[in-house]
TrEMBL record:
It comes from Aeromonas lusitana. It catalyses: (6S)-5-formyl-5,6,7,8-tetrahydrofolate + ATP = (6R)-5,10-methenyltetrahydrofolate + ADP + phosphate. Substrate binds at L57, E62. Pfam families: 5-FTHF_cyc-lig. This is 5-formyltetrahydrofolate cyclo-ligase. GO terms for molecular function: 5-formyltetrahydrofolate cyclo-ligase activity; ATP binding; metal ion binding. One of its GO terms (biological process) is folic acid-containing compound biosynthetic process. It is an enzyme of class 6 (ligase). Signal peptide: none annotated. Its cofactor is Mg(2+). Belongs to the 5-formyltetrahydrofolate cyclo-ligase family. InterPro entries: FTHF_cligase, FTHF_cligase-like_sf, NagB/RpiA_transferase-like.
């Protein structure tokens, strides 16, 4: 049987290319993209109907959802952020995030709330998980940073349709013709960029 696995260097090269592309965006372009994301959220029926939404804090040139988080708070939505727990490596917890949450940085240098298990909920209790990504294509395939955290989190949704709906967030420049896939990759049913919403479901 032929080996159909994607050469690791192909994924690595694409990851490096698109990371550099998004980091090349100016501060003004980043701010404009963040405001356009707010506009997309305002017109998104699923976001408007959701009560508990997981997002992330931008790192490495990612599309910044912080203005959208402030809008969600104004709509009385509960916002959750991923936390890397010390007791289950390779997995994510989702913890309530408010304007007064004590913050720290995880081992990757990314801001996250200080772990407080009383503020953590099962990810199945979320309505939507907004995922960062490095690259995506017009079929909804997502290339992440390579840690597999979101693929593990979304496995039950991908295999059984259970749990929160995943929603990818990306800059327009992160779209590529084809994302090289692996068997563990979880394609997304929907991706939002500043320019448009992509619905693959």
């Amino acid at each position: 049987m032929p080996d159909t696995a994607t050469p690791p260097d192909a994924r690595h090269a694409l990851r490096q290319l698109i990371r550099q592309r998004r980091k090349s965006l100016s501060q003004a372009e980043q701010q404009d993209a963040a405001q356009q994301l707010v506009a997309r959220f305002k017109e998104h029926a699923g976001i408007r109907a959701a009560r508990r939404i997981a997002l992330y804090l931008a790192n490495d040139g990612e599309l910044d959802p912080l203005p959208a988080i402030h809008w969600l708070w104004a709509q009385q939505k509960e916002v959750y952020l991923p936390v890397l727990p010390p007791f289950t490596p390779g997995h994510l917890l989702f913890q309530r995030y408010t304007a007064t949450s004590p913050m720290t940085r995880n081992r990757f240098g990314i801001p996250e709330p200080e772990l407080d298990m009383q503020q953590v909920i099962p990810h199945s209790a979320l309505d939507i998980i907004c995922t960062p990504l490095v690259a995506f294509d017009a079929a909804g395939n997502r290339l992440g940073m390579g840690g597999g955290y979101y693929d593990r989190t979304l496995a039950s949704w991908h295999e059984h349709g259970l749990g929160p709906r995943p929603l990818g967030l990306a800059h327009n420049c992160q779209q590529v013709e084809v994302v090289p896939k692996e068997q563990w990759d979880v394609p997304l049913p929907e991706i939002i960029t500043p320019a448009r919403s992509w619905d693959f479901s």
